[in-house]
């Protein structure tokens, strides 16, 4: 198992290199001049050239990228172009908010999706199944920013139950977590239903019924546990997606997380900050996938045997 974990961590290195290379060159291909944006419209060409030289932006791109990698190997994500502060410090100040939002949204998704998916599979081809799948289809199809705006209009402006923006109290996270978790809830519920429908048709389920076991025991102890692998996969992917895909939610609700910071950095052409945010999200997504693979072994003994 330790060898497998070490191998997966080593696989992250080429992934990070590819991501940093792609993002670095995309940021430099974007229109606009960073030094000109920092100095403002009244800056002279001489002032812009002097600032570019000071920031090292007048060097070849490959040289700039190599210098960035050297700093990255020493744990230095660079300095923000716009604020002049350490990228690492700014990201670490925002990252707990993103993790908090992602975890609450994941709990909301799982608590709603698993019962919905199991109930739809057990009550297959009934009105319960149809209603649950319609709800799931709406969740998958609904744009997250539209849902966020609708929640603000109803619960903040009309009912005045939750704040519109910010992260001042526990109430501030309710609407962002619902808007972020609802779409992911739909995907998890659909996958849970599909895996459960396939599992409850297996021969060992009919054998369990023949032995006289209760329906609750058969569904939860045998069918659900053996059909969890696809659901675990989707949950892991959705959590990783929420970590990196909370950009719209954080922007609409002005949530002080990494996603909102990344949007602001893209608008300001702050390449070191964008690179730092992308690297952090890539690492988080890779570790979430690793945890999902390890959960396979905890759920299915056959997977543990394969690891050995």
UniProtKB/TrEMBL annotation:
Top-level lineage group: Bacteria
Keywords, comma-separated and alphabetical: Cell membrane, Membrane, Transmembrane, Transmembrane helix, Transport
Presence of keyword Membrane: yes
Membrane topology: Multi-pass membrane protein
ABC transmembrane type-1 domain mapped to chain residues: 95-296
InterPro entries: BPD_transp_1_N, MetI-like, MetI-like_sf
Pfam families assigned to the protein according to its UniProt record, in alphabetical order: BPD_transp_1 (PF00528), BPD_transp_1_N (PF19300)
Subcellular location: Cell membrane
SUPFAM superfamilies in alphabetical order: MetI-like
Membrane-spanning segments: 9-30, 101-122, 134-157, 169-189, 229-253, 273-299
Family: Belongs to the binding-protein-dependent transport system permease family.
PANTHER family xref list: DIPEPTIDE TRANSPORT SYSTEM PERMEASE PROTEIN DPPB-RELATED
Protein's name in the database: ABC transporter permease
UniProt organism field: Oscillibacter valericigenes
Lineage: Bacteria, Bacillati, Bacillota, Clostridia, Eubacteriales
């Amino acid at each position: 198992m330790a060898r497998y974990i070490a191998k997966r961590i080593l696989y992250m290195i080429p992934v990070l290199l590819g991501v940093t290379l792609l993002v670095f060159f995309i940021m430099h291909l974007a229109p606009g001049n960073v030094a000109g944006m920092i100095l403002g419209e009244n800056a002279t060409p001489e002032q812009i050239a002097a600032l570019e030289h000071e920031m090292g932006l007048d060097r070849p791109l490959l040289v700039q990228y190599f210098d960035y990698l050297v700093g990255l190997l020493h744990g230095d994500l660079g300095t923000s172009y716009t604020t002049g502060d350490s990228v690492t410090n700014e990201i670490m100040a925002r990252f707990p908010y993103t993790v908090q939002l992602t975890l609450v949204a994941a709990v909301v998704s799982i608590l709603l999706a698993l019962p919905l998916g199991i109930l739809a599979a057990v009550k297959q081809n009934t009105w319960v199944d149809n209603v649950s799948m319609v709800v799931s289809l709406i969740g998958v199809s609904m744009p997250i920013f539209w849902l966020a705006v609708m929640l603000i209009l109803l619960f903040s402006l009309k009912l005045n139950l939750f704040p519109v923006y910010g992260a001042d109290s526990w109430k501030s996270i309710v609407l962002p977590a619902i808007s972020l978790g609802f779409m992911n809830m739909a995907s998890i519920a659909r996958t849970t239903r599909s895996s459960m429908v396939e599992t409850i048709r297996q021969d060992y389920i009919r054998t369990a019924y023949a032995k006289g076991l209760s329906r609750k025991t058969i569904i939860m102890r045998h069918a659900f546990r053996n059909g969890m692998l696809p659901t675990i996969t989707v949950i892991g992917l959705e959590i990783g997606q929420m970590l990196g895909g909370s950009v719209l939610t954080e922007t609409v609700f002005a949530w002080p997380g990494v996603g909102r910071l990344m949007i602001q950095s893209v608008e300001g052409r702050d390449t070191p900050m964008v690179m730092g945010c992308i690297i952090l999200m890539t690492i988080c997504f890779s570790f979430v996938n690793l945890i999902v693979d390890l959960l396979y072994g905890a759920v299915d003994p056959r997977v543990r045997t394969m690891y050995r």
